[in-house]
Amino acid sequence: MNTEDQPDRIGDYLRGDLADREAFERELSANPQLKIEMETTRQALDAITLREEQVLKDRLRNLEAGMATTARQPDAKVIPIGRKRSGGWFAYAAAAALVVFVAGYFLLRPAPATPEQLALSEFEPFTNIAYTVTKGANDGDDGRAAAYAAYETGDYATAEGAFAALGPDDPVDRFYFGQTLLAQEKYASARDLYRELATQTDFNLTQESAYYLALANLGLGQADEAREEIRRIADNADHPMSREARQLLEKL
After folding, report:
1. Which of 30, 138, 181, 229 could disulfide-link 190, Cβ–Cβ 3.0 to 4.6 Å?
2. From its phi and psi, is residue 138 left (phi > 0), alpha (psi between -120 and 50) or beta?
3. How far, rounded to the nearest angstrom, does the alpha carbon of residue 143 sit from its chain's CA centroid?
4. Lowest-pLDDT range, 108-112, 158-162, 245-249?
5. Dihedral Cα 93, 96, 101, 103, nearest 10 deg
6. Interval 55-82 mean pLDDT
7. Which of 9, 16, 5, 6 has its CA nearest to residue 82?
8. Phi and psi at residue 245, to the nearest 5°
9. Per residue in 80-122, pLDDT tens?
10. CB 119 within 8 Å of CB 216
11. Could you tell me how far CA 3 lies from the centroid of its own chain?
């Protein structure tokens, strides 16, 4: 089949004028590209029809208001679908398809991320480097083992309760406690905890705590405060979270 004839065949099919519809439908099933062209043409013709209807409504409205529409503006050119065309109608269809595509892009494109969404998307639970979980061991009598075991499996609600029961004495346990809070979007509690840890001078996760404090502030919608801290971390090449901070800063 000559591909130059396809636009006319598609048009005849959509108008119901094609003689051998069954053969064309079999070809549609076997030719994905032809099916795409047919669907694109259908959408374009629908758009043209809607435009024609709107033009007619506008003209009726103008006539009812006593306006001399024909004297003030040229008539819109309405092309009836039922008339046989060679290539001209397909150009109109393609133009209308472009309009549909552009409109769809602006209507359906995702909205800019909110600070809360950014905090959630950028958060990755910190790897457990504090406690070795032995698989198959009974953690029932060991609160710390239970906390880290739940943490490693992603059961953050259970891990939160287990870490909370350990008390405030160990800053490392508190750090991972904060991770469970961030994972559950409990940003206010995480902020208070990491604000305390980020000021400790004898704690080897102080710098990481500052980064997660910024994420918690983002989650609370405090973008300006978070941005200032993230920029400070990003500018420090020796900071362990510098790469993450630079990537996040590009999105803020």
Report:
1. 181
2. beta
3. 39
4. 108-112
5. -170
6. 53
7. 16
8. -65, -40
9. 444 444 455 555 565 555 655 555 544 454 544 676 676 667 7
10. yes
11. 38
State the Cα–Cα distance between residues 177 and 193, nearest whole angstrom. 9
Instruction: Give percent of the chain with pLDDT exceeding 70.
Output: 67
The residue type found at 215 is L
For 154: left if phi > 0, alpha if psi spans -120 to 50, otherwise beta; the answer is left
Within the chain, strands assigned E span none
Hey, what's the torsion of the CAs at 23, 24, 28, 30, to 10 degrees? 30
> How far is Cα 38 from Cα 18, in angstroms, rounded to an integer?
13
The answer to whether 216 touches 209, Cβ cutoff 8 Å, is no
Domain 115-251 has CATH 1.10.287.110: no
Both structure tokens of 170: 């160990």
Sheet strands (E) in 31-94: none
